[in-house]
Amino acid sequence: MKKQLLYEIRRNLLPLVIFTAIGVVLSLLVCMVTDLEYVWQDPPRPRNSCLSLFTVILCILCVVVPAMQFSYRMKMRSADLWYSLPVSRRRLALVRTLGGLLLVLVPFTLSYWMGVAVIASRGADFDCIWYLPAFFVQFALGAGLFGVNAFIFTRANRPGDGVLFLIAWTCILPLFVMLVCPESAWDRSAGALSHGDFLSCFFTMSPLGWSATLFQDLIFRETVSFAPYGDGFFFLIALGVGVLEAAGGYTALFLRAERDRAEDADQISSSWMGYRVLVPAYVVLGLNALGEVFSNSDLPAAALICVLVLAVGLIGGFAYRRSFRLRWYDLVSLFGAFVVGTGLFFL
């Protein structure tokens, strides 16, 4: 295990240096030129803590690195090579995961603290002590997000499919929550903004986003409310969702590792975490969401929207099969989802 880990570190040394250099340079430049305060007000008020910058860097790394670390299983030659080694596939997944976490967390750490040093040197009226717990929270959440994205990406048999799965699963849970908790059933005293905030808790990157919002309030010496509809309330929801997703992602990643087969490389991505579920699910959930947005549309416009969603669903089926010839059960699934989604759209 030690030898494999050392080899993984040496193999990733160049991308580690590149990612770190890009992150640090970007962090230094943005923190130097960003207006931290509303300087034209007397006294100046806090404006930007740059936590969103560090969050974006971490999110990008948590998408790029899992794809880079686990794409070996999607090419026939590299899959045969790696699976022929006298190492169990679960251990191989563990080594790749540890190497990936190194590629994510080291650039994030250096970028974060170099940026914070620049912010502190500019003398803004911030309560800078909150940058410390913010770092540890985002560090842990970033490690969790890596596991989620790694599992989702490995459900594909081609890199392109894996990227599409990452995008699709990032947004599917908020659409499901919109189905079971529509705005029409939301407490009107809370307002439409709070309903949008509630939905924003369910993206895979939401824990990182809401942690940045929460700690920015603390850095600005603002009161943080954990009562319903406060920033703390939405952060706790996003945190709970993120912890469950991370636990499930890492568990499934290693439990499924032994079932990976070299002959699956570059084949149709037939996992239940892929097109087979995502295409009909997005047809239903997409039509429901569009029905919320375009509830006052006239019949021709509504019909056009439904037809466009069906067309997108067909494109998803073509991408799944890599052909314009779909199986009969693909068509039954798609048109069944379209009928259900159309009903939700008009209701």
Structural write-up:
With 347 residues, the protein is mostly helical. It has 13 helices and two strands, in the order ααββααααααααααα. The chain has helices at 2-11, 13-33, 51-70, 76-83, 89-121, 131-153, 159-180, 192-199, 206-219, 231-255, 275-293, 299-321, 328-346, and strands spanning 37-38, 45-46. It has a two-stranded antiparallel sheet. Strand 1 (37-38) and strand 2 form a beta hairpin. Helix 9 (206-219) runs antiparallel to helix 10 and helix 11 packs parallel to helix 13 (328-346). The longest helix is centred in the N-terminal third of the chain and has 33 residues, at 89-121. The protein is flat and about 65 Å long. The termini are far apart.
Summarize this structure as a short list of keywords or feature phrases.
single chain, 347 residues, mainly alpha, two-stranded antiparallel sheet, 13 helices
Question: What is the topology?
Answer:
Elements: H1 2-11, H2 13-33, E1 37-38, E2 45-46, H3 51-70, H4 76-83, H5 89-121, H6 131-153, H7 159-180, H8 192-199, H9 206-219, H10 231-255, H11 275-293, H12 299-321, H13 328-346
Antiparallel strand pairs: 1-2
Helix pairs in contact: 1-5, 2-3, 2-5, 3-5, 3-6, 3-9, 5-6, 6-9, 6-10, 7-11, 9-10, 11-12, 11-13, 12-13
**General form:** flat
Largest sheet: spatial strand order: 1-2
Question: On the 0-100 scale, what is the average pLDDT?
Answer: 87
Give helix % range. over 70%
Low-confidence spans: none
